[in-house]
Amino acid sequence: MKFIELLRTAFQSLKTNRKRSFLTIIGIMIGIAAVITILGMGDGVKKTMYDKFGNSKQGQQTTEIGYSSVDMGSTIHGFTEEDIANIKTEFGSEFKDVKIEHDSLINSKMTIGDEEKSVSINLEKKPEKSINLIAGREITKQDLQMKEPVAMIKESLAKKEFGTAQNAVGTSISSNETTYRIIGVYGGGSKYDQYGTLSAKGTDVVVPYKLYYDGQNANEGDVIKLTFPQDAPASKVSKKIAKYLEKNGSAMNKGTYAYYDMEKELKAFSSQINMITGFISLIAAISLFIAGIGVMNMMYISVSERTQEIGIRLAVGATPTNIMLQFLIEAMVLTVTGGLIGFVLGAGLSHLLAPLLSLGGGIKIKAHVTLNAFLLAFGVSSAVGLIFGILPARQAANKNLIDILR
């Protein structure tokens, strides 16, 4: 029998018992969907991290050197224009460019009432949509463009300092010689709760980004970004610059300078994600084994019910190999159909669930379902059909025509 004819016969047989066929492939669908969901989310996390922190531009490398103050609430920054000038003088021939990076999430001191307090500040670049507004109003696009001295504060901070959220609206707070008027108070469940710094979970205060970095803050920061040619020893040079800053940096006595090998960190992070997704996928794959047993059971029943059909085929010239291929293809069509449906479900679920993950800093995760994931779903479902369909197919092929006629 030709392959196309075998395939057509397989589909006809499965259509005859649609309900039984559907119930049989549910396990395959669930197993494949679970694996694809985990892989899609895991690959999405890795891709997001590489896109944000990796060397995305062709023909060059980027590294960062950071400064950490001994006093977490200090307003003194580790890098100034003088530091940049000194780095260019000492190492200018070894890199393409160096500039101060301004973080949008910082720890700083702020005067609230009559006291100076250390707070976590989110420097807003564009209006945030997901805000649980308790009192007042939110920061608008016009506020940001006009660099209005306005601020929003967290409900817990408002109650602690002003008694109620409503009392906080209209009062003033100040930082770095700039006075901000509180225009709104936000509560738990806001997008700002997903942001944070190393020492604080969530954000206490929100102010306009451009306004904060105006004036004295414009030429200062706690991170510098270095750009190198693709073939340059970026890591080696960055370490040399960090050591130089430890002895000559403008804030060398008030904190530490350190180079972080982002590529190395990303590789380690990627390895951990692979281990986690692999382990969870292995657990999810147990359902595929159980589903495979279900497929085998259904095929045995099918062979038993179609004894007369097998006898007729043998009588008109079909070989045992033809019979075995017919039932084997039926099993594989069954599992591959379940695998493809499971792939679609898994891809959809991963795109729905990935945005719920949070890496902090307002980093948004998008699922990334690759061609490899599709090939995995197709390959695994085909293998399940082949492995669990071979014994029933051999039983069908070994039936004796004389015994069937009796």
From TrEMBL:
Subcellular localization(s) per the UniProt record: Cell membrane
Stored Pfam families: FtsX (PF02687), MacB_PCD (PF12704)
Membrane topology: Multi-pass membrane protein
ABC3 transporter permease C-terminal domain ranges (all copies): 282-400
Membrane-spanning intervals of the chain: 21-42, 275-298, 335-357, 369-391
Domain MacB-like periplasmic core: 21-241
GO-annotated molecular function: transmembrane transporter activity
Gene Ontology CC: one annotated term: plasma membrane
Keyword list, A-Z: Cell membrane, Membrane, Transmembrane, Transmembrane helix
Domain of life: Bacteria
InterPro entries associated with the record: ABC3_permease_C, MacB_PCD, Macrolide_Exporter_MacB
Major subcellular location class: membrane
Entry similarity comment: Belongs to the ABC-4 integral membrane protein family.
Protein name per its UniProtKB record: ABC transporter permease
